[in-house]
Design a protein that fits this description.
Strand content: 15-25%
Shape: globular
Largest sheet: 8 strands, mixed
Radius of gyration: 28 Å
Helix content: 40-55%
Structural class: alpha+beta
Distance between the termini: 81 Å
Length: 585
Amino acid sequence: MNADGVRERAGSLPREPGVYQFREGDTTLYVGKAVDLRDRVRSYADPRSARIRRMVDRADGIEIAVTDTETQALLLEANLIKRHQPRYNVRLKDDKSYPMVQLTNHDAPRIEVTRDPDESATVFGPYTSKTQVETVVKALRETYGVRGCSDHKYSGRDRPCLDYEMGLCTAPCTREIDLESYREDVTAVERFLEGETGILADPLRREMDAASQERNFERAANLRDRLETVRAFHGEGGEAVQSVGDERAVDVLGVAIEGEDATVARLRAEDGKLVDRDRHTLEAPGSAGADVAGEADGVASVLAAFIVQYYAERELPDALLLPERHGDEEVAAWLEAAGVSVRVPGAGREAKLVDLALKNARRNVGLRDECGMLADALELESARRIEGFDVSHAQGKSAVGSDVTFVDGSAEKADYRRKKLTDQNDDYDNMRALLEWRARRAVEGRDDRPDPDLLLIDGGAGQLEAARDALAAVGWDVPAIALAKAEERVVTPDREFSWPSDAPHLHLLQRVRDEAHRFAVQYHQTVRDEVKTVLDDVQGVGPETRKRLLGRFGSVENVREASLEDLRSVEGIGEKTAETIKSRL
């Protein structure tokens, strides 16, 4: 776009807070936030740097999204940067993002908390607290009966589901409510999300008063807490939150930049003591380090981008100690409203902490991360988010599967999943069933996790082939590889790799594989110990004795084949009980 094109587009924009995207076809080049969209976009007619000028020249369009508050613009910018990874933004390499509420484009719209809204949906937010959003959405569903089920579950029903019985849904699927009345309730939900607090607060208050009059004080207290959350919902992020007492939690940030790589080291001090430290890699904008380090887009812009993107889904500290000012007015206003003190210390203990953070940052800058090395080795765009799969059973009994998630090389335990499988002594079929289950949940929108960059199968070529058969049958297009234990060979659909034993990217795969194995075995043991067996009918064998027997021999079949001497060696098993077990089995 030329300067005239930018001015013409800016002239049609509102003077409201929001987010703008410079686009090249379907590609997002840059995402920015603004208190006044018209003024901010107009400023790009006279770019402030060579890098920004190149971005504007490449762009062929500008898209905007208006928000209710400046804070929402700040959070939406962070979400869009994480989703689109635009070349000309500083990008933190993690999957954290802010929750939004969407009403789907459907005859009977569904309400949903999501971090990746549908393009056709009506979207509200983003918000900083997922817990608060979920509380409000539940209150909306209980008051107005808007469905939360997937379209897959909605279609083809001949009777209402449990949500109807629990008062969470008016069941438009079976026309317990006609669609016109249902859409009126959806309109009421939209009015609340657009800022009309009373449309939900008033019914909750009446219900709370009624519960109190009926002396149902526990119910009244729950409704009171929910009412407080609802009343605070639209003020969230827009009103000052005063810190109470002295600063308890302080984060110290240090930044180092080399070429296109930036590293931020974070130290956490609580009650005056260092309790945690970590480092985070960011991709700096542009194609040359000079563009970043030589302009205002250096340490300051890295700090501003990191603060917003990192603290998605994380609690802000009482204070931030920085090596220099971040220079972003919107970020400064957000931190001030949240009661966060921001300081650039020049001397004393705080300055020493900043120096320590800088030393930690410089230790890592410019080094290739293991996820990047793995992506390069496998010729993938990214390998930051990996899901690992394994199955476990005892001669076909108590078969289970595990699905673990790693993000940027670290276990993301909140995203672990597990699955009971049909009992069969066939590792290939078990793996096929496990991957089909995962793929169907993804394709049908029943899994709230982002799609992974890579699937890792614990096993060899046979397990990988079974997994890929399942993916193909469902139509889930995600790369899959396997890691065989014996020789630590990496098996892909096209070839096998034998990487050096000290290769960082091999170590990453080993960690994912071993964790999937551990999680599967742990779940198998739990299921196995919970399963009622013929041992329960043996006189003298109680739950603890049965657990010891299965722990020793692994399965009822192995107990049956054990000798009397082996049975008597188990704690709590006497000669008579051992003989009874042999006779009954």
